[in-house]
C-alpha cells in the first residue's frame, strides 16, 4: 500500500502503520522521495501541491520506531545509526518544504512521532492526544531534530524539562505551548486536519513558502539581514502572479482566487 495520496492540491503522507502507529520504514523512504521532488516544483503551478498532510493509519499518529527490532539487532550502533539517518533524510525536506505542512495527530505521538509533529508547521489534535519524548524510557537520546525544534517552539528551559523528565504532554498543555494549532473531538481530527491542509493549499503557495523560509532563517539572522530578506521577499511577491491577484481582488472587493 502506497504511503502517498494526492487529494486535490494536498499531498497526503502516511508515516506509520498498524494499530499502535509504528514508524514505517518503507513509507518513510517513499515520503522522503516525494518531499525532495516537491522542492523542485513550481509553486505557481495550479496543478501542483499546495500543502502536505502527514498522518498515520491507526488510532495513534506514531509511537516511534520498532523497539523490538532495536533490541534484536546484532550491531545496535550500526542499525540505529542507519535508521536515524533514514529518518533524518525525511525530516530535512519536511522542515524545508516549500509549502505548508500539517499533521493530523490522534492518540499518541511518541519518540519519532513527536519529532515529526514538532517538524510540521501546524498540528491538529484530539482531546486524548498525548505527546511524549519516550527516548529516555529506553535509555536513548532523541533523534528527528527534537533537540532542535522543541526549544525553538517552547523555549530552552521548558524543552530541558520535557526531555530530561520524559514528560507526557496532554492536549491542554500542547495547546498552551503552541505545539497544537487546534484541538477537536477525537473522531474529528482527520477531517479537521484535512480541511486545514486544503485551506492552506488554496492560498498563495509561493508567498506561504517565502513566509516559511523567512521564519526558518530567523534564528540565525541578524535583524538587518532579516529586514533585507523581507524586503526582497515582499517585493518578489508584489511583482508575481499571486501578488497581482491579491491586489486586484482587494481593489475589486472580492476574495482572491490564487488557484
Summarize the structure.
With 259 residues, the chain is an alpha/beta fold.
Could you characterize what this model shows?
Keywords: Isomerase. The chain is α/β, with parallel strands linked by helices and 259 residues long. The protein folds into 2 domains: 4-202, 2-enoyl-CoA Hydratase, Chain A, domain 1, CATH 3.90.226.10; 205-252, Lyase 2-enoyl-coa Hydratase, Chain  A, domain 2 (Orthogonal Bundle). 49% of the residues lie in helices and 15% in strands. It contains 11 helices and 11 strands. The strands form 3 sheets. The chain has a 6-stranded mixed sheet with strand order 1-2-5-6-8-11, sandwiched between helices. A 3-stranded mixed sheet has the order 7-9-10. A hairpin with a 2-residue loop joins strand 1 (4-7) and strand 2. Helix 9 (205-217) packs antiparallel against helix 10 (223-239). It is globular and about 65 Å long. The two termini are 30 Å apart.
Quick tags:
single chain, 259 residues, alpha/beta, 2-enoyl-CoA Hydratase, Chain A, domain 1, Lyase 2-enoyl-coa Hydratase, Chain  A, domain 2, 2 domains, six-stranded mixed beta sheet, three-stranded mixed beta sheet, 11 helices, 15% strand, globular, ClpP/crotonase-like_dom_sf
SSE series: EEEEHEHHEEHEEHHEHEHHHH
Q: Spans of 5+ residues with little confidence (pLDDT < 50)?
A: none
Structural class: alpha/beta
- CATH architecture annotation of the largest domain: Alpha-Beta Complex
Shape: globular
**The named CATH superfamily of the largest domain:** 2-enoyl-CoA Hydratase, Chain A, domain 1
So how many helices? 11
Oligomer: single chain
The biggest sheet amounts to: 6 strands, mixed
Which CATH class of the largest domain is shown? Alpha Beta
User: Mean pLDDT, rounded to whole units?
Assistant: 94
Q: Looking at CATH, which topology of the largest domain would you report? A: 2-enoyl-CoA Hydratase, Chain A, domain 1
Q: First CA to last CA: what distance?
A: 30 Å
Q: Strands of the biggest beta sheet: in what spatial order?
A: 1-2-5-6-8-11
CA-atom Rg in angstroms: 19 Å
For the record, the count of structural domains works out to 2
> What's the number of extended β-strand segments?
11
Strand-residue fraction? 15-25%
Amino acid at each position: 500500500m502506497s504511503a502517498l495520496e494526492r487529494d486535490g492540491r494536498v499531498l497526503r503522507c502516511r508515516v506509520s502503520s498498524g494499530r499502535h502507529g509504528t514508524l514505517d520504514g518503507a513509507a518513510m523512504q517513499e515520503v522522503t522521495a516525494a518531499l525532495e521532488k516537491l522542492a523542485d516544483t513550481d509553486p505557481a503551478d495550479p496543478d501542483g501541491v499546495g500543502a502536505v498532510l502527514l498522518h498515520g493509519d491507526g488510532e495513534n499518529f506514531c509511537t516511534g520506531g520498532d523497539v523490538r527490532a532495536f533490541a534484536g539487532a546484532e550491531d545496535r550502533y550500526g542499525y540505529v545509526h542507519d535508521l536515524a539517518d533514514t529518518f533524518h533524510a525525511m525530516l530535512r525536506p519536511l522542515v524545508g518544504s516549500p509549502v505548508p505542512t500539517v499533521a493530523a495527530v490522534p492518540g499518541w505521538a511518541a519518540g519519532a512521532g513527536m519529532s515529526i509533529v514538532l517538524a510540521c508547521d501546524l498540528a491538529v489534535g484530539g482531546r486524548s492526544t498525548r505527546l511524549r519524548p519516550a527516548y529516555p524510557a529506553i535509555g536513548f537520546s532523541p533523534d528527528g531534530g527534537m533537540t532542535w525544534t522543541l526549544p525553538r517552539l517552547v523555549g530552552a528551559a521548558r524543552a530541558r524539562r520535557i526531555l530530561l523528565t520524559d514528560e507526557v504532554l496532554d492536549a491542554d498543555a500542547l495547546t498552551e505551548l503552541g505545539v497544537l494549532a487546534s484541538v477537536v473531538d477525537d473522531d474529528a481530527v482527520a477531517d479537521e486536519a484535512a480541511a486545514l491542509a486544503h485551506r492552506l493549499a488554496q492560498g498563495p503557495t509561493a508567498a506561504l513558502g517565502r513566509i516559511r523560509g523567512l521564519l526558518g532563517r530567523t534564528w540565525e539572522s541578524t535583524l538587518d539581514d532579516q529586514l533585507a530578506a523581507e524586503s526582497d521577499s515582499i517585493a518578489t511577491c508584489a511583482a508575481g502572479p499571486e501578488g497581482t491577484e491579491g491586489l486586484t481582488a482587494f481593489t475589486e472587493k472580492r476574495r482572491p482566487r490564487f488557484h
